[in-house]
Design a protein that fits this description.
By secondary structure, the protein is mainly α. It is built from 2 helices and no strands. Helix 1 packs antiparallel against helix 2. The longest helix is centred in the C-terminal third of the chain and has 21 residues. The protein starts with 16 loop residues before the first helix and ends with a helix.
Length: about 60
């Protein structure tokens, strides 16, 4: 369902290696660490910020 405009090793993988194996896990760990002691409004704001950055990264790169 996802379509990657740039894909490394497209011949061998149908997904984006850079996004799924490097960028997404690092961002998930950082998000967990950034929201560990936060309250719900702060978590929601950070969630919106993180998802918008990831979406714009995929959209333009």
């Amino acid at each position: 369902m996802l379509e990657y405009p740039i894909s490394f090793l497209q011949k061998y993988f149908s997904s984006s290696i850079l996004y799924e194996y490097l960028l997404l896990p690092v961002v998930c760990i950082y998000f967990y660490q950034a929201t560990y002691y936060s309250r719900y409004p702060s978590i929601i704001l950070k969630c919106v910020l993180f998802t918008s950055v990831l979406t714009s990264f995929l959209r333009f790169f």
